[in-house]
Amino acid sequence: MTDNEQTPVLTFRLDHNHLGVRVATLAALFVGACLSISLLPVLLRNVAVPWKTIGLLVIGLGVSIGLAWFAERYLRKVWPSGRELIGGMEGLVLRKKSGESVEIAWDGEPEIKTWHFTIDSRRASVPKGWHCTSLQLAQSDRLITVYAFMAPADFEMLPANKLFEELISRRETNGQKQAKQAIDEGPQAELWKAERNRWQGGAEMQPADFASLIHLIGRKAPSWLSGARSE
Questions:
Q1: Residue 112 in contact with residue 224, Cβ under 8 Å?
Q2: 23-55 pLDDT per residue, tens
Q3: From residue 145, how far is each of 26, 103, 138, 139, 216 by CA, in Å?
Q4: Residue 68: other Cβ atoms inside 10 A
Q5: What is the C-alpha to C-alpha distance for residues 78 and 65, in angstroms, rounded to an integer?
Q6: CA atoms 211, 214, 218, 219: torsion sign
């Protein structure tokens, strides 16, 4: 049986935390706050305790956050962003919400770049210390750039993680002209160009999906994966 016959078609949903989900989450937080302000005083009007006001604030805050948390988790599962990545025997296809698509063929020997950097400050949905792991496939004038936020333990288990070069932050140059020039003109220059592509139009994947994609690329581009095994 050939590798093509063994390769299943994989469909990855992208951008789980897309703009629509984020807006709906904020709306749920607002609705929770309004409900708390309207209903809790009525429900607790007969409660004669000195901490009633503080209790209302704490309960109201909890209700608001809880409703927003539930809305975000639920909507991520049922509300697709409109973009998806399909990997199969012939190559990768990125389908956009507009109906357009970008295709990378395996037999065209795509150029593969992989990099990562560590999140140095806590964000709304990404803890400090996690890795932003990124992958770019380029072929002719076609680009597919995807990424995933991963816990350190998950990054260590990622196939070919040694091939993910660490992106040097410009803040680490401490204003030194030579250090900045090394980033802008040296080996990191291409990675920073790819990082800008990720920032502007990259598609976010779930960590498990990202690992599955690396497995698929390893089968279809074994020469790239062999670089990790030889180290």
A1: yes
A2: 777 877 777 777 776 766 665 666 555 555 666
A3: 28, 12, 9, 12, 15
A4: 20
A5: 20
A6: positive
* Averaged pLDDT of the chain: 80
Tokens standing for residue 230: 């030889």
Q: With DSSP H G I counted as helix, E B as strand and the rest as coil, what are the percentages for the chain, rounded to 5? A: 50, 20, 30
pLDDT in tens, 126-152: 888 999 999 999 999 999 999 999 999
**Tell me, what's the pLDDT at 2?**
47
CB 88 within 8 A of CB 166: no
DSSP of 30-58? HHHHHHHHHHHHHHTTT---TTHHHHHHH
